[in-house]
Fold each of these.
Amino acid sequence: MNRRAILVFMLDRPGVLNKVSMLIRKKMYNVDTLTVCSSRVAGISRMTITLQEDDQAKVTQIIKQLEKFTEVISAKELDTDHSYWREVAIVKLEVDSAHLESFRGRYNFEVLDQKGGDIHILQVAGATGRIDTFLDEVGRQYIIEIARTGVTALEK
Amino acid sequence: MTGKKLLLQALKENGVQYIFGYTGGAIMPIFDEMDKMGDFHFVMSRHEQGAAFMAQGVSRASLSSNTPQIGVCMTTSGPGAMNLATGIADAHMDSVPIVAITGQVTTGVIATDAFQESDVIGVMMPICKQTYMPLAAEEVEVTVHEAFYVATTGRGGPIVIDIPKDVQNQSVSSEYSFDTKNFRPTLPGFYYHPTPEREPLRRAIEMINRSLRPVLFCGHGVINSNSGALLQQFAEKVNIPIAFTLHGLSALPADHPLSLGMMGMHGTVEANRTIMEADLLISFGMRFDDRVTGRLSEYAQHADVIHVEIDPSEIDKNVACSVAINADVYRTLHVLLGDPMLTFKPRRRWFEKIDGFRQVMAEDLRREIDGGVGDNGRLLMKSIIHRLSELTEGKDLIVPDVGMHQMMAARFYNYQTTNSWFASGGAGTMGASLPMAIGVKLARPAERVWSISGDGGFQMNIQELGTIMEQQLDVKIILLNNGHLGMVRQWQTLFFDGRYAGTPMQSPNFGLIAEAYNIPYRKVDKPEEVASALQQAIEHQGPIMLEFICDASEVILPMIPSDGGFNDMIVKRPKRKKPPATSDGKGEKS
């Protein structure tokens, strides 16, 4: 299944998030990620939704129905060739420092905290796949807890 | 100035005359103020669902007239609001603009599970066009004006305003002012395209001129934009037959020579076969619903599609089109009619073929209509509807319920009056007719209104007889009683080997019920009495109920099975393989 990203600009009013998520449920999708933040303009939010779908017609249908909401100003699909999709992960790992340091330079991560010798809290930012590869290489068995923001995206 | 006064004042400014509803704790302040103001005709429904359908009746019957009105219903919180839900979902499916105002518990106790508290916004959000909850008296007026704007702009739909009790009573600050005249809602993303673009129109005209086997589709949008006469002119100008969706009926006279009647599951053979063989569908204001298309993979396989539709999300939703015209139907037809490139084509072979389709069932139907009774001697619904159509010259307003009798009323009444057919279509809500007819009668008082129900749907909102009695509304009630849920029974006959699970139904003595509501009543079980009973109802001033004892084994054909394509259309009643086995044998005897 192809991962799709939909960018929506909408009025910052109560219930809009509710409406959007209900529409996606009604269309029988499970949201992969959903991020909301304020935009450059006061009172207008921007939302990035990612979900799995191969059928272009179905994605177009979701976008048209999103645009129908009175609060939605615009909705469109972003593709990876013409936009950046990024997320941030905060990871608590039990791993020795030397192992971690071997990845420095290849991956862009920051150590936020280190305690008890082997317990590290890292922040790593990048494309979803890049973060996944980093975690695979470091070793997922060392992860104690992980938090990921979900994708936010911007057109080139 | 208080929230309740501002609300009522804003309703008045939006042309509201009728308020349908039911009071209760959380809406009492507004009801009290309404009574003091004396500016509205209040109609008390006997159940909140009825109020929603009455509001729909007003909107549906008046929107294409010179004096459009939006139906308003008003109920209390919790169960009052929840009982509206079906009527609101129904309005949403059929694009009917109504405004529902529900009282809510005071803001201080919201989300504490207070007495009669329900999350009205949460429940209504997916079944209406927009929801609002003003949280201060200052927000009330702007909310109501925006609500009416959103309800009627572009594709219509229902709006819910949930207003907490303390906001109703709250006074605005001394600096508050609101400029009704110059009000424009701030909705940067809410727009619609009324005017068609040039390029798709040019391509559409090319395709129409080139087409050998075209067919026009008349949908609800034609009625809503009051374009029936224009569509007729257009059809005559280019010489193309017209098929109607359920909601497109009555946009132009049903017996127009170019009319093919209704399309879809219970549409006519001529409409469906024409669509099957067409090379071009030119559809106006409709959404290719599953009851229209049947199995999509087999739908109109040889045809290109031109889709004129105000709601862009309907374009390419079910049926992919070659030319999309996202615009108002009226404006599109207006531009098309003025285009010198459009040409008249005789299309003789196409019309000869269509004449052949018209003959497929003509004789069977004529025999049933003329005979008037089934094998068991009981009355046939189609014959009663046909007789009603003759006696009223097809000029009356018809409000069917949902089920077999609805399809009979769609097929066998010869609609002559523009916008004279008011049916719950998309949602298919049984019980819609009686309350909807009340709204229709209030909106169009000079015209005769018939509420036609089966015994199932009639009993779903039977309590609205009380409203008819109280308001002394001249609604003619036809009850086509076959002792069953007729449409489901037909499916059981055709697809469930005649096992009638949950469809036989014992009914009360409707004569006594009518008497209890002081409504004149007549029961008819002989074909020779049908006309005189209908004539009696026509001549009677005021409400009257006619109960016809109908043949439960009557079927409405043709039928395209719900998972079938147009090739699966059933035009002949299959021979019964074996006696139907029901636990009590009622199915067979009826």
Note: The longest helix of chain B spans residues 137-152.
Amino acid sequence: MRTALRALLIVALLTAFAGVGGAGPAFPDRPIEIIAPAGVGGGWDTLSRLTARTLAEEKLVTQPITVANMSGGSGAVAIAHVVTRRKGDAYTLIAFSPALTLTIVNKNTPYAYKDVVPITALSADYGVLVVRKDSAINNLRTLMEVLKRDPNAGVVAGGSAPGSLDHVIFAKAAKAGGVDPLKVRYVPFQGGGEALAALLGGSATVLSTGASEVLGQLQGGTVRVLAIFSEQRLGGIFRNVPTAVEQGYNLTFPIWRGFYGPPEMPAAAVKFWEETLTKMTKTKGWDKVLSDTQWFPFVIGGDRFRRFLDEDTKNFETLLRELGFVK
Amino acid sequence: MIEVWQHLLFGFGVALRPENLGLALAGALLGTIVGVLPGIGPVGGIAILLPLTFKLPPASAMIMLTAVYYGTMYGGSTTSILMNVPGEASSVVTSFDGYAMAQQGRAGPALAIAAVGSFIAGTLSIIALTFFSPLLASWGLTFGPPEYFGLMLFGLSAVSSLAGDSLVKALLSMGLGLMLATVGTDLVTGVPRFTFGIPYLLDGIDFVVVVIGLFAISEVLVSIEEARGEVRVPIKLGRIWLSVKDFLESFWAIVRGSVIGFYIGILPAAGATIASFLSYSVEKQLARDPSTFGKGDIRGVASPESANNAAAVGNMIPMLTLGIPGSSTTALMLGALLVLNVIPGPLLFQDHPDVVWGLVASMYVSNLILLILNLPLVGLFVRILYVPERLLLPLIVAICVIGTYAVNFSVFDLQVMALLGLVAYYMRRNDYPLGPAILGLVLGDLMEQNLRRSLIMSRTGAMIFFTRPFTAVLIALSVLSILAPALLRVLRPRHRPA
């Protein structure tokens, strides 16, 4: 079995190089697989499927693209699979986001970004802090003042465990506002939906999550978004939501989504994917994807993206060390 | 009220369009098949279809996905009853009395009451959903972590009604379930527990894998052992159809199952599996002679099957009125809506009446489709009992392997399934009931999380459980339910020696 696999791998490698270099048929000359490291329906899965669809519809890639779901440990299962089984593969793309950065920083995987090839980010959602419509707290500054006076004054709900995305969104905001995040009660829920129910039902006073989780509530007027952690004010449903920067805080929290490739992905393939995916973000089809899903453009590719990731990882490491999650 | 009728009429206009009717039928059919196959449940069924719905109008997509969801609830009971192999977690309870009925040659009535009960429960729940959604949704929101803790505790107290002859063995079995529930990243601290550095365990062990391992694999092992190469004499089949007596006997079980299931379904963090366990336990405790439960009592099939369908409908309420998913299945549906440029939230009714009312109306329709589809299938399905074991058993294993693999596409899950199959084989051989293990697994996680959430929220420590009326009542009920058998024994005058 193992030898058969190895043989297959060698064949794959050879064909990969043959396809990328030289004068053979244009790359990619074989079907592509996009790995969504989570179940169907989540952010990674939606990104993968919509990317596959747009690449095909805009005829940027003519080879068939399949999406495979490989859930587990916020990306830990997929990165382990790719590092150990798909070295040098030019035909695999894996979806990722800051959730994987946190998996890495929290040491829930032995691998890191240096073990794979980050290609490009495509879109983003942004961190938000949300209260019920009837809350007396009107803006980020009031919230921070209330919490500074009495860290027990509120209960923060989020859709994931301490040390992972929703909690870190709040922790970063609290630090920017001069509040000790460890002193504020944070109640973790199983997913954004349950956390939202806790906010609406009164079990929590503040919800810390991604903007896309509260689209419907914001539209329906049941909640107030105190601040969105984007650099500039966003359009659409969020046009009336002030950013933290506007309110005088040096605070942004993009939840970018993009793709990485397997370790030792051939340089020509990396270049191809970076260019093709960037080209895709300029198409009408992708514009429609963004407006349908209420995602925002966030395109950084290549070396800039890899530097951005290094920086981001370091920042998260510092924050989580201060919070005591990383020793 | 008149407005609701108008909306509903408009909804039927959407649901009865030929293409939507076709999609509902296709969804119902697929759901039934997926439900019958062990391992592939509602989540799997919807996941398969989800990418296809990207190309449909939102109303049609939702109609199809709901029909699939609904169909799996109907189909799930089939293998529970016929082979003691539950199709999904929510039909585990059905196997207790359903399989016993099949052994007595009453597979036909068991399957029929499951379908009829599902239909009645479904229809009652849809009526409630049609008229009282907003009210019910805000009731569901008042359930905070302390209330959930109370509910889960009450659920665990149902273990006494799942015990066979030995309460100790039932408790040990539940302990196994509770232990399995602790595997994975601890939600409250973010620290991995009992994962041994294996990334596959970070998200815990999937219910489906445990249900298949414990029930299906061990059932196959036991059957092989009992057959010892001999050709099994097929069970004599009694009448296929439900008698009037059967129906009257189960009528109140269906009604109670519907009410319990529906209310539990409305709660965003509880669902069909919990509903089926609780309604079974309530039914048994209300019964004049509880000793017939577990030995082929038709109420033991009617009650959980009604409850899980009612819960499936109840689940739609937080989704439609608030845009909050009540289960992983409705979470998938919400994801589908978002991709179709429909933002689920409080404005859904207002902005997309075709989606909401079309969906509501289509639920009446698919419920009827499923009843019509399933009753004739009873006659077909019972024939499975005539399939020789040497063909049937390998087939069951093959389906289980595929179903389990399909959950996460992971070979690791198959290994866990096989291991649990061996554990369950040992348990069966030594008369440990398996139901409590599933009960522990389903409730353990939720109970622990909500206990700890409550304590984080509370500034008065454990007092939070006694100052909230609903929680206090649930805790009192749990204590009562655990002590009741012992109390009754003490209070009741001793039987005079004959």
Note: Residues 101 and 313 of chain A are 6 Å apart (CA to CA).
Amino acid sequence: MDGILSIIRDLLLIAGALAVLIGALGVIRFPEVFSRIHAAGITDTAGAGLIILALLIESGFSLISLKLLVIVLFLFFTSPTSSHALAKAAIHGRVLPLTHQDKG
Amino acid sequence: MGFIFSPIVFLILFWLALSGHYTTLLLILGAASCFWVLMISRRMGINAHEGKPIHLVSWRIVPYWIWLIKEILLSTWAVSRMILSPGSSVRPQLAKIPANNMSDLSKVTYANSITLTPGTLTIEADGDELEIHTLRADMLEPLKRGEMADRVRKIERGHNREQ
């Protein structure tokens, strides 16, 4: 039982680290600011979520796990807010989204 | 049961849970800071309307979250493949989708959920419409079908019936 749990925990940690890495790569590779916001989103939803899930398994049932859950909850409310603020700021600064309506 | 969700009880429970130290001095300091926060929010006038986010407390939010996490993982997979595949597959699009028949709080939940799923991003909320930026045209399809909107509305309908 303990062995299986620690394997799941390790897999979740690796998956979370990969998600953060992929998000960072996307921020570099994507062409403009709005697409990059999508990539950054991977870092703070899937990346942070998976890593904290792994930490939840590690901490067991305690005050620490409650704190971790609160962190997840806050992240899931604040990260879309900051993405939205970033997009708004870009539009405000007259950076218009590059679109491909014609190729539909 | 309503008093359980009153701000002061929530603050005290929250402080107790996060602190983990239960000596006299710290308990007094904790109680003082709870009252201080309560006084500040009274002064700001945010108690009446937003102090009781019953919408968020309703148990119906839990199945919605589970469904949302599944959606986030699926779209994370799709966007990750776009990032890792060679060449550029990014064809951003802007579109407007309806957010009618929703309270303000549901609209926020809806707009935030759209932003949380990678590949779609809420840029503007204007009345009963949300302006969405997508990485690729096909990522908009699930939103156009309106499944997420229906699920968000369901949380609220449940809440209204319980009252």
Note: Chain B has two domains: 2-50, 54-162.
